[in-house]
Structure to design on (375 residues):
């Protein structure tokens, strides 16, 4: 009988399903290397519940229809941020008062994210351990209403990342430790397309997929883009830093060439900043997708693959009608690389905005039929 291979990582999309299922009774602790999107799980789960959540500036809870969503930035908290023992002069006893952070005055169940839990001070880890095991903040229980239990989960970096993450041994055996996989290129490109990330950054990732590799994968010693525990570089490519770099790219016209390169290098590292700078110079010479739709057979197809990719990503963003898509497919068919064509097809079929357009387009259907062996 063939042995089943064990995969020891789980995707972010799998986690947004797992956490609500088990988080009322068993606390998942999600680990990954820096910048992979662990913290965004809280907003994803809120979205899945039909709620809008954004990280609170003042540390208070955000109310949804079914749950309150509570973000706890563990490394910067101390005992008084969680609760305090206060004298009750009427009965001459001490009472435990829970911080407003947890909004326990409201009986609505909570979804609590203990972010960077393993960087908490040890004394706080003891307090958080009772929250994770018993759903108690000090002496106060988290709400449960109509059979809906409060949910607790945490995040932290891998121990091998070397950034100060550790956990009390007795607590580790009482939670569910799961390592989150770093998103692959297609997963990140889909997210980036749906969240308005610049086509230049998306083209850079598609052109240099090694930038989303993980040091855990092995054979990455010569990878100049990524986080590696053995190196002291603070700026490197990660899903987070790619998204942060987008604001720089969007304001590039107001920057000098030097300040642009320095800002990019300080965000995604010098190697990827150099690649993006070259892409930005090239972008100025590219034909606009709207112009391509007017003359798909006549406009010259750029020879450089990175230029072709940038046009593909712009098309995913701007095509709005069946007529535009059909005409643009005439241009796509002239691109000599089926792999570049496949990038366009994949993004059109995975983007929530464009998939309805693509599903009903005859040219897209013909391309898929003729290139089915690529998928």
């Amino acid at each position: 009988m063939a042995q089943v291979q064990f995969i020891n990582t789980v995707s972010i999309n799998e986690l947004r399903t797992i956490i609500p299922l088990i988080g009322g009774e068993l606390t998942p602790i999600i680990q990954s290397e820096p910048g992979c999107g662990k913290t965004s799980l809280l907003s994803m789960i809120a979205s899945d519940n039909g709620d809008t959540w954004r990280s609170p500036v003042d540390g208070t809870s955000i109310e949804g229809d079914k749950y309150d969503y509570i973000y706890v930035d563990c490394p910067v908290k101390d005992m008084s941020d969680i609760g305090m023992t206060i004298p009750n002069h009427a009965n001459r006893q001490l009472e435990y008062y829970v911080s407003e952070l947890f909004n326990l005055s409201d009986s609505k169940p909570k979804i609590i994210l203990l972010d960077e839990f393993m960087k908490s001070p040890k004394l706080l880890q003891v307090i958080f351990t009772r929250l994770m095991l018993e759903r108690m903040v000090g002496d106060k229980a988290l709400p449960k209403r109509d059979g809906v239990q409060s949910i607790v989960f945490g995040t932290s970096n891998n121990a091998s990342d070397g950034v100060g993450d550790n956990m009390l041994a007795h607590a580790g055996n009482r939670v569910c430790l799961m390592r989150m996989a770093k998103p692959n290129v297609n997963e990140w490109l889909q997210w980036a397309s749906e969240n308005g990330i610049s086509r230049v950054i998306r083209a850079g990732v598609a052109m240099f997929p090694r930038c989303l590799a993980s040091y855990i994968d092995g054979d990455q010693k010569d990878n100049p883009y990524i986080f590696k525990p053995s190196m002291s570089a603070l700026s490197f490519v990660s899903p987070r830093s790619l998204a942060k770099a987008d604001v720089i790219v969007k304001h590039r016209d107001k920057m000098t060439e030097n300040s642009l390169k320095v800002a990019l290098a300080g965000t995604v590292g010098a190697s990827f900043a150099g690649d993006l700078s070259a892409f930005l110079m090239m972008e100025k010479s590219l034909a606009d997708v709207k112009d391509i739709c007017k003359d798909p057979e006549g406009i010259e197809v750029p020879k450089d693959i990175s230029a072709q990719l940038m046009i593909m990503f712009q098309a995913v963003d701007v095509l709005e009608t069946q007529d535009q898509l059909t005409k643009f497919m005439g241009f796509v068919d002239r691109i000599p690389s089926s792999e570049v064509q496949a990038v366009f097809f994949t993004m059109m079929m995975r983007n929530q905005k464009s998939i309805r357009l693509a599903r009903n387009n005859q040219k897209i259907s013909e391309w898929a039929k003729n290139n089915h062996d690529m998928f």
